[in-house]
Write a structure and sequence with these properties.
By secondary structure, the protein is α/β, with parallel strands linked by helices. 35% of the residues lie in helices and 16% in strands. It has a six-stranded parallel β-sheet with strand order 3-2-1-4-5-6, sandwiched between helices. It has a six-stranded parallel β-sheet with strand order 9-8-7-10-11-12, with helices on both faces. Helix 2 runs parallel beside helix 6 and helix 7 packs across helix 13.
């Protein structure tokens, strides 16, 4: 059985899909999955052994200049490639107008969420097969339930989350300092999108000192200049050789290898926390103003710490009191003890 999966973005959404793929692979031994995903995430799907072909799509780029001749030619070429295969099923696992638009142009019957379950309900009107999945559940569970119904196998909501990625041969990145040798290291994922999601820099400094004293070195990756400057300040606060900041921004593939071989991870609410969860690395994730209930990092070795403000989704604080409230339950000691329990 060969299916085409439509799950294009974001990074968290892509990683949330892996447990459903593992369920399906276990239930259907001859299953093969091809995957349509945004080009920026194209290297990720092949980490799962059930995935064969990956079709990188540039939908975000196309939508900016839809009537341009080059765009139309790119769209035509993309679907000509996809439609060289007749699929037993096309599964739209996003439930959006854009994913429905892609799925309807593929060669096979389209399945997806029903009207009450899809994020954009009208998209469901264009599916041949539609399935109910309650919205008040974590995205991973919703996808597992959708796959089970669409592919007709039994699923128990209490089944353990298994990402099932083929990472056994992944070694430590060559980029790590040579003098570290085989010493264990931690990764601090300190960068995120909203300022209100940040964990205070002085907290990172104190945590860095605590883990150094416990015998762990720390890697401080970064994704932009602001994050590089913060990582550099943190590293400067540590004793020589106890923290490392990459000179250049690491690729997603290198970061994945870095996370896989770490002893543990501490992360704010950011896309890379989903990578670490999928790689089943012991991790503590800090939810200051966002709630992990529906789309947070989830896995067998993930501890989520949340403040009283986590359910408020604050992009700015209304007062100094609220700012302080948003750090309750996220003290350095809270994080350190949760991390040590994991590793």
């Amino acid at each position: 059985m060969r299916i085409l999966l439509i799950k294009m973005s974001s990074m968290g959404d892509v990683f949330h899909t892996f447990p459903a793929l593992s369920d399906a692979q276990a239930a259907i031994p001859d299953l093969t999955v091809d995957w349509v995903v945004e080009k920026s995430f194209a290297e990720i799907p092949k980490w799962h052994p059930v995935v064969d072909k990956v079709y990188p799509i540039e939908l975000r780029k196309w939508r900016k200049d839809l009537f341009n001749r080059e765009t139309r030619e790119a769209i035509k070429a993309f679907f000509e490639e996809v439609n060289q295969t007749r699929y037993d099923l096309v599964l739209d696992a996003q439930g959006l107008y854009k994913s429905m638009w892609v799925g309807r142009r593929a060669n096979g019957p389209v399945s997806g969420f029903d009207f009450k379950s899809a994020r954009e309900p009208l998209a469901s009107l264009f599916y041949q097969h539609k399935y109910p999945v309650a919205k008040d559940q974590h995205a991973i569970l919703r996808l597992r339930q959708l796959f089970a119904q669409a592919l007709n196998y039994a699923f128990d909501d209490d089944q353990s989350i298994v990402y099932g990625l083929d990472t056994q041969a992944w070694s430590k990145p060559e980029e790590l300092p040579a003098e570290w040798g085989d010493e264990g290291y931690l990764v601090f994922l300190h960068g995120t999108t909203w300022e209100t999601k940040y964990w205070p820099e002085e907290y990172w400094v104190e945590l860095l000192h605590k883990v150094n004293q416990s015998g762990f070195k720390v890697v401080l990756p970064w994704g932009n200049d602001e994050e590089y400057q913060r990582a550099s300040r943190l590293a400067d606060s540590a004793e020589t050789g106890q923290a490392w900041v990459p000179e250049r921004m690491l690729s997603l593939n290198v970061i994945a290898h870095l996370l896989k071989n770490a002893k543990g991870v501490v992360s704010v609410d950011t896309g890379l926390s989903h990578v670490a969860a999928a790689l089943e690395v012991p991790m503590v994730v800090l939810y200051r103003v966002t709630d992990p209930k529906l789309v947070g990092a989830n896995g067998r070795q993930v501890i989520c710490l949340k403040s009283p403000c986590a359910e408020l989704y604050l992009k700015q604080f209304a007062s100094d009191e609220q700012r302080s409230e948003s750090l309750k339950g996220l003290s350095v000691d809270d994080v350190f003890h949760s991390l040590i329990e994991q590793i």
